[in-house]
Amino acid sequence: MRDNSHLHARAIQMGFLGVALGAWFFIGRNGWVSPLFLPPIEAVGQSFIGLLQTGLFWSAVRITLTTILQAYGIAIVLGISAGYLVTRSRFLTQVLEPIISGLFAIPITLFLPLFILLFGIGTGSKIAYGAAYGFFPIALNSIAGLSAVDRRFLNAAKSMGLSPFGTFRHVLFPAAFPAILTGLRIGFFICFASVLGGETISSAAGVGRNIALAAELMEPARMFAWIIFVIATALVLNALVSRVENRMRGV
Amino acid sequence: MNVAPISKAALAETIGAISVRNVTQLYGEPGSQQAVLALDNVSLDIKRGEFLTLLGPSGCGKSTLLNIIGGLALPTEGSVSVHGAMVHRPSPDKIAFVFQESTLFPWYTVAENFGIAFKYRGLARSEWRDRTMAALKSVGMAEFIDHYPGQLSIGMRQRVNLARGIAAGTEILLMDEPFAALDEQSRMVLGEDLSSLLAEAGKTIVFVTHSLAEAVFLSDRIVLMTARPGRIKSIIEVREPHPRSPGFMLEPRFGELRNACYASLRDEIRQAMAIAEGKSEAAL
């Protein structure tokens, strides 16, 4: 029953994709839109094959993915640590939680030039930028989860003589895990978007840099080839993250 | 010169298990309007192997006193010593807690839950499984060792919770309304089990409840407490050996003791209700 509706949903999703690609094909074929804004699908395809044949493609992808992972790793460690420290007292949570959520409202993109000044045009500034953005949802969700842990569990832990680290490992973290996982998921996609955005705005290498470069060189087919690649990567990562998340939640 | 062992044993006998000395607990700033005097100059001696129940109206500070004995909270004034040593913090090697309903961690299996208690008591990992099994057997839950708490009913969870307290193997067990979430029948059955478990183990137990029947059925002594601020009003002794059979509940003596507890608590409960009403009026 459930499987059936699942297949149904999948079929509709595939249908949408097919319609979109078909529309793209017809628009290109009939020249309804200037190829500068939307190059024909065949041209994009050829361009993509061309990209794959250069060594540049994989080195750009490697740089971008490494940057994302580094930024995400830093965001996780700092975000969960901040969540833990902030929730050590009710008062501290009351003071700091609104500050952190307020800071999250600021477009951190404004600080990208500062990050470039501090960490250079290389991957360092993009790591800092992605980590700074990814930090907030992870910290905020950790605060929400860790401050809502049932006092009875903490009392039980205390009575059994658990150390602060033991309490975190055996009680706080597992109890807050569903909320933390939500933060990790949002944080991941924010890191992904920030690193690519940062690369597009200003960098020396990476996928984002190549997209910006193709646009500057008036090569829309190549630019779209990169964009399609990023979209496909995002979809694959999303499916991967969903799967990992479902496994962790025990669904 | 082999006087030492004898005097040591004699000393242990005279020291007793738990000694509460002039304990006062004040919540909030002294002198402020919100300050609540939860316990007022409470002193109590609990013998080794004794089953002592704290009985009183809600908010009389029973649980507060239990937490202070176990080192989970520090009193504003006064002190508590266990086996002659002052209590400043939890001592899982001497004292185990069994809390209200289930404080089993839902993210761990029954065996893993026991493992955490053992780990921080410093027991060798090789002993864990056997100890867990033995404790679960004593409450008839052995087959659920690898289940998650969420897969068990409330009654089963509470049995497991009880077993976790016993499995730690401490001399002292502090129980905070452990059967409160259960229905009357399960409560009585678990009470019987507890009574026979204790007869074998010879543990010292401090038990908090607001059930009169439970108090009389299980206790050697019942400490009746006054409404806020909590003081000891009177102490009733129940002279009946453990394990106690359900037949004890049918004896006239059981009813008399129960009535004596009720008579003593009645005024306190009325007063506690008056305090609560006064509060809601003030809130209006």
Which strand order do you get reading across the main beta sheet of chain B? 6-7-8-3-9-10
Content-based structural category of chain B? alpha/beta
Number of domains of chain B: 1
In the CATH hierarchy, the architecture of chain B is: 3-Layer(aba) Sandwich
Large-scale geometry of chain B: globular
Mean pLDDT of chain A: 91
Low-confidence stretches of chain B: 1-5
CATH topology of chain A: MetI-like fold
User: What are the secondary-structure elements of chain A, in order, as H or E?
Assistant: HHHHHHHHHH
- Low-confidence spans of chain A: none
Specify the biggest β-sheet of chain B: 6 strands, mixed
Q: Care to count the β-strands of chain B?
A: 10
CATH superfamily of chain B: P-loop containing nucleotide triphosphate hydrolases
Second CATH tier, the architecture of chain A: Orthogonal Bundle
Q: Provide the structure class of chain A.
A: mainly alpha
Instruction: Specify the helix fraction band of chain B.
Output: 40-55%
In sequence order, what are the helices and strands of chain B, one letter per element? Answer: HEEEHEEEHHHEHEHEEH
Summarize the topology:
The complex is a heterodimer of chains A (251) and B (284).
Chain A: H1 2-30, H2 41-53, H3 55-86, H4 90-104, H5 112-119, H6 123-147, H7 151-159, H8 164-201, H9 207-216, H10 220-249
Helix pairs in contact in A: 2-10, 3-6, 3-8, 4-6, 5-6, 6-8, 8-9, 8-10, 9-10
Chain B: H1 4-15, E1 18-27, E2 36-46, E3 51-55, H2 62-69, E4 77-82, E5 85-86, E6 95-98, H3 110-121, H4 125-138, H5 154-167, E7 172-176, H6 184-201, E8 204-209, H7 212-218, E9 221-225, E10 232-237, H8 252-283
Parallel strand pairs in B: 3-8, 3-9, 6-7, 7-8
Antiparallel strand pairs in B: 1-2, 1-4, 4-5, 9-10
Helix pairs in contact in B: 3-4, 4-5, 7-8
